[in-house]
Queue: 3 jobs
Job 1
Amino acid sequence: MRILFIAPQTFTSNGDAQDVATLAKVLRRADHAVELLSPLYGHIDTAKLALARRLTKLEFELGGRRWSCELYTGRNPDGVDLTFIGNEEVLLSADSLNGEGNQLDASRVGVFEKAATELIVQNADNYDIVHAHGWAAGAVVARLRAALPDLPTVFTVHDASEQGRFDAADADWLELGDDAIDEAGVTVLKAGLSAADQVTALSPNYAHRLQRPDSDHPLSEVFREIGSKLVGVRHGIDPAFWNPATDGHLPARFDPFDMDGKDKCKAEVQHDLTLPVRSDVPLFGAIGHVDDEGM
């Protein structure tokens, strides 16, 4: 299968970045052709990633003016193809796409989403499915619904609290139609939820919570309306990265055949948390959001 990832946050400090990169790697190892599409932010080193700049540019109208975007392509060590959309005026000056901002933030989202859509339309025969990650990628899904209605799309909600809300005055920068507009303004996440063929959340429990009748999420009604289109897929980890036998960040390493290092790691955690350092007391840990959006 030929899969295109729309992943604006993969090359940022966002906590979901590693999840997206790992999924792309795993799919590539399963013999799928995977391409990852991202804005070219100012901190991205094109030389370090061995990216080549294409001669052709993406040209389009947005916000009452003409825009031109450059394309950079390459391939990472895992065999995942990389494509970056660059624009010196709005994208190179950003570290990420901000979903709670001003007109400049809206223009950044708008330029990326329209350029991405133009690129996909030009190369539609190269993709079997588009998998969009995060609220900003939902804008591309919404545009594709009109431009390429037969191209299957999956939209993953990594954090439903990130919705991409902009003032109604910025609607012309986003061009997402009436589905994205409500009394609060323009909501990019809403457009993506409505347009995608399939929506996934990061656990079955999280998906259930988003659709509960007593949910206080601003888009709870939209989550309920999409019904069974929303599926919870439990989070995983990359065992090649999260491996206590090779992890140099641990005070000691261990594996199933030599567990001595685990006791040293436990003692270190107890010490760092100002707990009694005792080997006979169980120590439990849980990974997740310690807030109302917890998994």
Job 2
Amino acid sequence: MNAMISGAGSDRGDDHGNDLHDGAPGADWHDLGPRDACFGDSPCLQATVNGVKVGLFLVDDEVYAIDDLCTHGHAMLTDGELDGFEVECPLHGGVFDVRSGKPMCSPVTRPVRTHPVRFYQGGVYVKVEG
């Protein structure tokens, strides 16, 4: 998978693909590429930001970002199945909500971290802290 993502942002003030109207993202925001570069055939893709593998998920024209590594089986969540706001780990079938990172069913019990996503001047930005 590559680091190019797309999605239509909203102006709701949330952190999963809203347009920035108050200036460019700061140095702690990572530019993933142009907004018009599509996910292609998959609503899931992986990017490495600050050494962290991040899973990006396009759901209802919003982009959500979580750590890509399952907290139970150490598999890449972007290799799993996305159903609505839930992604299923391909290894043991644990499910996470991509909006909150919360585990939704066994065997996962620990959440994955979420990361804010923003759009600015056609680019998609994600903020990942160590």
Job 3
Amino acid sequence: MMKTKYISILLLGLLGSFFTISSVVAETQSKSVLGRELRSHPRLLFTDSDEIRVNNLLKTNKFAKKLSDKLHREADYLLTVPVEYRFYEDGSKVPPLHISREYVYRMITLSMAYRLYNDDRYAEKVKESLEYIFTLPLWNTKPEHFLDVAEMTTAVAIAYDWTYDYLPESLKGKIRFMVKRYVLDHAVKEYREGDDTSWAKRRTNWNVVCNTGMSLGALAFAEDYVGLADTIITNAVRYMPNCLRFFAPDGVCYEGPAYWAYTNVYLSMMMKAMDDNLGSCMGIDTLPGISNTARFYVDATSPSKRIFNFGDCTEGILPYAGPAYFYFSRKFQQPEVARFARETIMSLLDNKERTRWHFFLSLAWCDISKPEESTRSEKVKIYRGINDIVIFREGHKKDDLFLIAKGGAPDMAHQQMDAGNFIIERYGIRWLEDLGADNYDLPGFWDSKDGGKRWNYFRNTNYSHNTLIINNNRQYVPGRAYVTDKVESKKQTSVAIDLTSVYQKDADRVIRRFSLSNKGLMIVGDSIYLKDTEGSVCWNAVTSSKVLLDGKKAVLEKDGKKFVLQILSPKNAKFSTTEAKPFTPFENPVTGYTLLQIRLDDCPEKEQYIEVQLGE
């Protein structure tokens, strides 16, 4: 590789005019960021020492070698595609955010291949791509959707840093100028003037993604803009806890598993960059829940390797397969997380599908540590947070029974009226399911206040979840549902979730208790204290299985297997079915799903109890 260091004055043409960039100080001159001497390039996410470690791994470890082979194939493929990426194959326009994400993938893949395989063709493709990237309309002084900008800044920062020795000084100067003017200067203004809805300060995934993008950009160009780097990193660390505080105490990402992956891949990049360049994570790693969040995600993945897709998370989505696991497993000494990561990533390496996004950071951060088998013994786990999560696990074999349930906070970002919701699996089949997210572009989809338009859509309501419908009403949006107790005996272990707050308009008390018996049966018991007599209660469940009804018994059939639900209480109750369908013609269709229900109408007494056994 080229190792020349440049000291020059750059004159660049931009928009028909010329501007002057002051003398670039040699990289070897001592500079510091937040009091720590600045590393030479490469300094972001994949340092020289990381590169040495990976090259040694490739000599002895089959998993790392398979990852490397996949990287080589993907990088070679990217050499054959045009640098322009604005249209899909059908001619439709690619949304700006997806353009940014594609370049995150391309820049990581090509730049890493350049470093590991010493082949200038990859660096040349990076150079051509960077030249094209700065022709996109994304670069302006008033960005409409800053998430697009933050992800593209991530792509540019990594490419600039990893191919620093190859890129011509004229292009590096242009990159620094453009990113400073249209991104980093904007970020400083946002830190100074933005309110709590700003991307910089809000409590959602945007906060972590955007602040990480700004920090990577600042570190990439830190020798040229030392004071700017100090300001951006200081503010990023100051405001990221606005989102991360909701991981307390046990690591649950309240926005759901899809946003767990998004938030944590950027969080892991931020922490890795700080570890390498500042010597610590400046307290981010000690925030409650952060050290446990990867363990939560691993435990919440079913034996069939499917996630609990609550909130705005697509039904049927596979577990995240990417580098965040390896950062957390190495940072917090969690070999069980590393094992899960290798198993999950291996499934991608064994097929011909293209990988995406930050995937090949998995090679840069690869962790081959192995846990003791005793780490898989716990059958019931509770993870507390905005959404308390309860996990019942008969074992870790694919056929074993698995149930995961949640509390709820409908008014939080990306949430639904799903307090008390659960999914259950046996034989590797999901018998009761979550329909997941609908179309983000539906009118009023983000109007999540009580009575807001978000609640006009089927998938967002309790009508589409495995929970209760009382008096034919929706759950109360500002309400909260949470785990109250765990009771263990020789015969069973049970956990209760208090749903009273989300049903407060219709009931004085609602408790849902899940119990796992030693025989591998689940019992779901609902204690409901209605405000008035003659009310109604509907026990609701969603399934894509064939349903056979026999009064108090429902037999679900799928893939040659059967799963039985039996009503234990009340004595006169029976199952019924109805088609699961959207409320409006604008929503995504719901195809092949049935609502399995127990309906108690005109209840003569306020106190009602429904108990259902799930299993053989």
